[in-house]
Amino acid sequence: MTEANNRHNDFIEKLTEIVELNISDEQFGVSELSEAVGMSRSNVLRKVKKATGLSVSLFIRNIRLKHAHELLQQSDVSVSEVCYAVGFGSTSYFTKCYKEHYGYPPGETIAQLQSETSSEEKQNISKKFAITGLLVIVAAALIYFGFTFTEEPTNKEAIPYGKSIAVLPFVNNSGDSSNTYFVNGLMVSVLNDLQKIEDLKVISRTSVEKFRNNTKTIPEIGEELKVSYVVEGSGQKVNDKILLSIQLLDAANDEPIWSQRFERDAVDVFDLQKEISNIITKRIEVMVTPEEIARINKQPTQDLIAYDYFLQGYDELHFGNRESLEKSISSFTKAVEQDTTFARAYAGIAMAYYYLDIFQRDKLHQEDLNFYADKALFYDDELAQSLIAKSMYYMSLGNCKSAIPFLKKALKYNPNSAIALNFLSDIYATCVPDAGNYLRHTLKGLEVNIAANDSSSTSFNYMHLSNALVQNGFVQEAEHYINKSLSYNPNNLFSDYVKAYILYARDKDLPKTRERLRATLDKDTTRLDVLQELAKVCYYLRDFESSYAYFKAFDDARERYNMDIFKNIDGEIAFVYAQMGKVRESQEFMVRFKEYVDNNPTVAKNVELAMYYSYIGETEKALDHFEIYANDEDVHYWSLLFLDREPLLDNIRTTPRFKEIFETMRSKFWQRHRRLKEEISPIELL
């Protein structure tokens, strides 16, 4: 057995012990297990999936069922006693799960075991006579088939993308275009219900919208979205009646699995949505936990007028432009006036205010955003949208760290939330740098939001993935995806300069990197992000004259447009200005750099302090801070590629202690890289 297998077995044994200690606690689930083992929820999910092929929910359930099986072999216990002893809150649900697992209901366990024992005894009598005949048959079969064995298709082959589904935009069958929001609302409601199921991968609305008027076949759509199943629908609202046709299809073969036409009273809209979700999950045999069932069955409002206003607001919110956002606020406000406890509508108002402010220097709606997010949480603190709305408030303040717990909790209640995954990906990429979590959330986000509405958005999605991969040392995979990003949009200059660095990680050719960045800047000379990257590469090459020219052009533009950006490079600018004899300006930049570093809450703070103290000659302080940084778990690949040539570290770089610390940092990075590779198997993405 390999070392990796041993580690997997040890990990699974540890998890099993923890579950067994909590076997009677029906509330003990994925989150509690993750907390008990001291790992993130996503990490546990991936490791259990890799080791057992099961979701964590199913892994826990199987342990409960095994204990139930053992208890039921005692003649003095009832099924209901065993049910609660192993943590099932419902006898009927326990019976269903037990029968699916063992093939018979729990009440028949002893009889079944006795029957199996009797059968074994009979089989042993005839076994010795059967062996000889069996050998003859096997030999003949080998000769006939030429020693070639053909396995039956596995379940994985039957559903190439596992338990995964896309709900395509429903068609409005009425001649009244004003009816569209209601039909869209039915589609989104079914989508949202399915997204709450951990055992099912559900493609986001953003990804399916591109197929609204698309002529692609179902197999083509399934292949592009990487799903096994597709849901199509069409309907209309006629007076107080809902007419809806639904079809569930095997995506690979374009074969219907289930189809049905519904005609219901409008007052039964929530029951209709639940019924459709329930039928779909049963048809594709998805495991739905009692907690997930409860969340799906939770009615958003009792007031149909409020719900109608909400659907109008949600449809406008999806368009995202200022006019639509203001319309959505108006509709959501009418919804909460009609039902003052409507959490989902309060969350909608908060989200609309966030998007109104998102690209504005002066945030005009922060108080409104916070007020409505709190109202949403007050009425439903387990609603993913309420939690996301509150995270938006913290992000609007620039306090990304406080947003993280709300986004993680949102994923607990909606594991397929593309918006929560994308926010976390962005946070771990920039505000709270964490290369491992950046990659994890980017991968999952891309999985559920695989086909954006346009090629430009898709290009950015793949750019994020390639950036996350290279930060974790997966250079070959990063190159693959940055090329894919540029194939969707050759004019994506973000991808252009990320590729320059990926190729540097591959070839270690810094002069060539300078040439590539110059070519990128030539495409758009107003790009200050590219300009400062080019200045830094010249700085690393110690071409201080060129670096000074680029840094000066960058800083002049920054001052001219009053832009508070890239303050982290002021130390490098100070160094270059000093080399060019600009002593006073250099000192001013270094003072600004120190002020920035003192207020920097990220893991980069210690390496920046090391640069500062090295520059001013306090080498022991510099080495102390560098050692703290090197021991951090979130050091990314760029540190290995650039810190040993960083001019600001000149005063300590040749010391034995620096070299020792750097080698320790390098070793720890590659150890983490190997663990991450086992966890997510990024090569499988290719």
Keywords:
mainly alpha, Arc Repressor Mutant, subunit A, Rossmann fold, Serine Threonine Protein Phosphatase 5, Tetratricopeptide repeat, 6 domains, six-stranded mixed β-sheet, 34 helices, 67% helix, globular
Can you summarize this structure?
The chain is mainly alpha-helical and 686 residues long.
Summarize the helices and strands and which ones pair or pack.
Elements: H1 3-21, H2 30-37, H3 41-52, H4 56-71, H5 79-85, H6 91-102, H7 109-145, H8 155-158, E1 164-167, E2 171-172, H9 180-195, E3 201-202, H10 205-209, H11 218-225, E4 229-238, E5 241-250, E6 255-265, H12 269-283, H13 290-297, H14 304-319, H15 322-338, H16 343-357, H17 366-379, H18 384-396, H19 400-413, H20 418-431, H21 435-448, H22 455-471, H23 475-488, H24 493-507, H25 510-523, H26 528-540, H27 544-560, H28 570-579, H29 583-598, H30 605-615, H31 619-630, H32 637-642, H33 650-653, H34 656-680
Parallel strand pairs: 1-3, 1-4, 2-4
Antiparallel strand pairs: 4-5, 5-6
How many DSSP E strands? 6
Q: Structurally, how many domains make up the residues? A: 6
Helix content: 55-70%
Give the name of the CATH superfamily of the largest domain.
TolB, N-terminal domain
CATH class designation of the largest domain: Alpha Beta
The backbone outline, from C-alpha atoms, is globular
The computed structural class is: mainly alpha
Span of the ends, CA to CA = 27 Å
Q: Within the CATH hierarchy, at the fold level, what is the topology of the largest domain?
A: Rossmann fold
Q: Which whole number gives the mean pLDDT?
A: 86
Regions with little confidence, pLDDT below 50 for 5+ residues = 120-158
CA radius of gyration is: 30 Å
CATH architecture of the largest domain, by name, is 3-Layer(aba) Sandwich
How much of the sequence lies in strands comes to: 5-15%
Give the biggest sheet: 6 strands, mixed
Helix count equals 34
